[in-house]
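quick q for whoever's on today - can somebody do inverse folding on this one?? i tried earlier but teh output was garbage lol. tokens:
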């Protein structure tokens, strides 16, 4: 048995799964319980933390583009060091990982609605029990949920948006254009008296705008463009019952919604809110301009550190493409030493420190 477990986190989580971001430190341990035969064949136990982003085309067997973002490893046990492993006995090897202050793309597995394109960013912990020849006797993997720090702001005044034809006499207002996953988008609809009796319903839709920047060469040669797709995230249609001038509406954002990000040279995500009114007669509709929406990860007023840098501004040690020598290498996560903490402070020794009485007198003078 080989298993990776993470210690419980009491901070950021999505559906009870811990989320890690720039600068995060997380702890865990590798559990090992193997037979005498496997012990004799094994040479070392190591843990690897690695991440990869890739794009795929529907007709392509291999990725259109693949880039390993980072790869860090630590040897947890080595037979040559003399430490013994008992057969059929569970042994625990702790580890601590420190993420760099880098904005990577979020953990993502997206396929376009047309199934023509796909994008994956995977952060993975892997443990390997290796033989002397380097082959893996046992291996196990655990996905890590990573999210970047995307700031959000709230507007000081409501944003007023009129319908495409102002003569229609309809407008909507929003208190913000930035939201967090799981939060509702509040919309206030205002109708002129001429429309109050003729509007049947209002539809609110949130779309995810997906842009593939790394596309098949033949597609780029033919169209010289990026591949863009639109994916419906959430929608709601509300019947307008009362003939009043204002109506309060809400659209929930799913908690697992991927945040907006545009700093990747491979793939980007944005959001757009669409609002339509349906009239009772002839099913005519009144449309509003598309409203750009940002889905962030930090609450209103929370700012990320100025030390955070975007991953695409660095060169990768794994890239096969020609890179500028003057560009810094992308920092990778680090395995930290596990520190054993005592339950109490060490006993006071006046040989090492001045007496309490002496220290008090000095402070008062």
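ok took a stab at it. sequence:
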């Amino acid at each position: 048995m080989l298993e990776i477990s993470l210690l419980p986190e009491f901070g950021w989580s999505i559906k009870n799964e811990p989320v890690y971001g720039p600068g995060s430190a997380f702890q865990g341990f590798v559990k090992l319980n193997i037979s005498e035969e496997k012990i004799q064949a094994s040479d070392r136990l190591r843990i690897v933390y690695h991440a990869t982003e890739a794009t795929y085309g529907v007709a392509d067997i291999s990725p259109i583009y693949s880039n390993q973002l980072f790869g860090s490893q630590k040897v947890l046990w080595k037979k040559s060091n003399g430490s013994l492993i008992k057969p059929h006995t569970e042994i625990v090897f702790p580890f601590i990982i420190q993420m760099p202050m880098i904005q990577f793309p979020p953990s993502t597995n997206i396929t376009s609605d047309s199934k023509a394109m796909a994008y994956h960013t995977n952060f993975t912990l892997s443990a390997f029990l290796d033989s002397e020849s380097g082959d893996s006797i046992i291996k196990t993997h655990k996905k890590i949920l990573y999210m970047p720090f995307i700031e959000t702001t709230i507007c000081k005044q409501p944003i007023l948006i009129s319908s495409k034809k102002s003569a229609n006499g309809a407008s909507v207002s929003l208190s913000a254009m930035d939201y967090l996953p799981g939060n509702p988008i509040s919309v206030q609809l205002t109708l002129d008296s001429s429309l109050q009796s003729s509007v049947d319903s209002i539809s609110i839709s949130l779309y995810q705008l997906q842009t593939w920047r790394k596309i098949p060469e033949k597609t780029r040669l033919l169209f010289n463009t990026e591949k863009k797709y639109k994916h419906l995230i959430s929608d709601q249609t509300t019947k307008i019952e009362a003939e009043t001038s204002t109506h309060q509406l809400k659209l929930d954002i799913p908690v697992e919604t991927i945040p907006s990000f545009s700093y990747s040279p491979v793939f980007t995500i944005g959001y757009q809110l669409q609002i339509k009114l349906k009239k009772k007669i002839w099913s005519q509709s009144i449309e509003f301009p598309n409203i750009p929406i940002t889905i962030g990860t930090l609450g209103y007023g929370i700012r990320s550190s100025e030390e955070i840098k975007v991953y695409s501004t660095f060169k990768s040690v794994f890239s096969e493409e020609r890179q500028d020598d003057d560009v810094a290498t992308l920092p990778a996560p680090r395995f930290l030493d596990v520190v054993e903490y005592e339950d109490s402070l060490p006993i006071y020794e006046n040989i090492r420190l001045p007496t309490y009485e002496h220290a008090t007198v000095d402070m008062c003078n």
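fwiw The radius of gyration is 28 Å. also The longest strand covers residues 42-57. so keep that in mind when u check it
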